[in-house]
Amino acid sequence: MITIKNKKNGQGLKRAVEELSGVDISVCFQCKKCSSGCPVARLTRSRPSEIMRQLHLGAGNELLESDLVWMCASCETCSARCPMGIDVAAVIDALRKLALARGASKQKGNVPLFNRAFLKTVETFGRSYEIGMIAAYKLGTGKLMNDTEKFPAMLKKGKIALLPPRGGDRKTVRRIFKTVKQNKEAKA
Asked: For the packed helices 88-101 and 48-57, what is the interaxial angle rounded to 10 degrees?
């Protein structure tokens, strides 16, 4: 059951999301294929289809504090599965941007730590480096020995590499990170 707490500025939120994402939310007919394919849906209180429906019904800023907004992996499975061609991932990205811009509650748990660890490895190596990311994350949580029994199997199956990746254009990636940092500083 979907409950809308505050419809006061819901249409404004819907318009803002549609502007940022380029998506016409009214096209969604609630087939729920986006939710059935979402790898994080079962870990969140709100599913992608529920977010779409809440926006359609005029949900307000409470939607900016949805756990899915922060848990979304941006894998775009939801968008690929949509029979109407709706870019659901862009809607979630727009909600995340609006949440940050409007000062909504920040991410909870270890999600921010994971995001920082991931982005730092991409900035450093030009692409994701799992061992570096895992090490930074484990150091941040203080749970260094959790899940270590899985490491040998992942290594053996080639799911994780000991050495950082050699591919990718490190200079271009570093330039992107530098530009984003400069843009953030200019806005502050």
From this structure: 70
103 vs 187: which has the higher pLDDT: 103
Instruction: Work out the end-to-end distance of the chain between its first and last CA atoms, rounded to an integer number of angstroms.
Output: 40
Could you tell me where in the chain the CATH 1.10.1060.10 domains are found?
10-101
Q: Which two structure tokens, joined as six digits, stand for 107?
A: 């991410």
For residue 108, what are the CA distances in angstroms to 72, 96, 103, 181? 13, 14, 14, 23
Is it the case that residue 78 has pLDDT exceeding 80?
yes
| Tally of residues, the chain | 188
Report the C-alpha gap between 103 and 38 in whole angstroms. Answer: 26
Please list the helix, strand and coil fractions of the chain in percent, rounded to the nearest 5, in that order.
60, 0, 40
pLDDT at residue 169 in the model: 80
Question: What is the mean predicted confidence (pLDDT) over 109-119?
Answer: 82
In CATH, the architecture of 10-101 is: Orthogonal Bundle (1.10)
CA distances from 178 to 11, 174, 183, 185 (A): 36, 6, 9, 11
pLDDT average, residue stretch 64-91: 91
pLDDT digits (tens, 9 = 90+) for 39-59: 889 888 899 999 999 999 988
| 93, 95, 99, 100: CA torsion to nearest 10 | 20
Give the pLDDT score at 6: 54
H or E element in which residue 185 lies: helix 170-187
